[in-house]
Write a structure and sequence with these properties.
With about 300 residues, this protein is an alpha+beta fold. The chain has helices at about 30-40, 60-70, 120-135, 205-225, 235-240; strands at about 50, 75-80, 85, 90-95, 100-105, 140-145, 145-150, 155-165, 170-180, 250-255, 260-265, 275, 280-285, 290. The protein is globular.
């Protein structure tokens, strides 16, 4: 909830108490102790869960901890508010305090060839979509490579984003931001959405976060056990089944100011999006900004 310059959390005579930054009853704080009890267990992936009130970026913080040797695999860092969060292509991203899930995890998939680590953002997308569908009761779809879409008012809106960064030679930090309770007047851009606006049956962030992290533990375990093979682990098939980009005409804005347009026909074994271009060739795209081209009205 955005605080006005003169809002000190008090009310004038005869008025109900004002809702200041930390008194929004619709956005209670996360229960750090409860999250640890529900997620940290012997033999499990999650070893440590820290919740901070405010930070610049959970990804930056966890990368720094990993490189300093103070965080191991299975570390989870959650923030109630981020002031310098980043998305792909170094885009800035902000949201009101306690209005979403803002967290990063540290993974060290040493058994998996580095060439297959590119699947980790897609794996995380599948895990987040699965966890939120179960815990929030809202339909979700994946936009290649790292966005989660919900439907608001009959339109696709971005409700979550994923950012993966290397942490030293053997680590990857994956950051996730999910808009949970954002109201229409709080959306940063018209194309954004939230679980609440998509009709979620629950916006209680504690069970939502537990559901997402348990789903991530499950998918990461399958993928790692298969040596990172996306087909053997079932990841490639599951991602394709939930990917709203496939079957659509898209515009790929590629490095070097190159633009490619075509139909997204597959996600290949390297996690790249395959486009069937107007020239009749199939071209894989491994990096770039993908825009779903809306059909032209007759």
């Amino acid at each position: 909830m955005t605080k006005s310059p003169d809002d000190d959390g008090t009310a004038g005579p005869g008025l109900p108490p004002a809702r200041g930054r930390w008194t929004d009853l619709d956005r209670p704080p996360l229960n750090a102790a409860g999250l640890r009890r529900g997620l940290v267990r012997e033999g499990g992936l999650w070893r440590r869960v820290d919740v901070v009130q405010r930070t610049g970026s959970t990804n930056s913080d966890l990368v720094a901890r990993a490189e300093a040797g103070t965080a191991g695999e299975g570390s989870v860092l959650v923030a109630e508010e981020q002031t310098a969060a980043r998305g792909r292509l170094d885009r800035r991203w902000t949201a009101p305090a306690r209005s979403g899930l803002f967290f990063s995890v540290l993974l060290r998939p040493v058994e998996v060839p580095v060439a297959r680590w590119g699947w980790l953002p897609l794996l995380t997308g599948v895990a987040v979509a699965t966890g939120l569908s179960r815990a929030a009761g809202v339909d979700t779809a994946l936009k290649w490579p790292n966005d989660l879409l919900v439907t608001v008012g009959g339109e696709e809106r971005k409700a979550a984003g994923i950012l993966a960064e290397r942490a030293g030679d053997d680590g990857v930090v994956i950051g996730v931001g999910v808009n949970v309770s954002l109201r229409a007047d709080e959306l940063p851009v018209p194309t954004a959405g939230s679980l609440a606006l998509a009709g979620a049956v629950s916006t209680d962030r504690d069970p939502l976060l537990r559901g997402v992290l348990r789903s991530l533990e499950d998918w990461y375990g399958r993928w790692r056990a298969a040596g990172g093979d996306p087909a053997a682990s079932g990841l490639q098939e599951t991602y394709a089944a939930g990917c709203a980009t496939l079957g659509r005409t898209v515009r790929a804005e590629l490095p070097g100011d190159r633009v490619l347009r075509g139909e997204a026909v597959a996600v290949d074994g390297d996690g790249r999006l395959v486009l069937a271009t107007e020239e009749g060739v199939q071209e894989p795209v491994g990096a770039g900004d993908i825009v779903h081209v809306r059909p032209v009205a007759p």
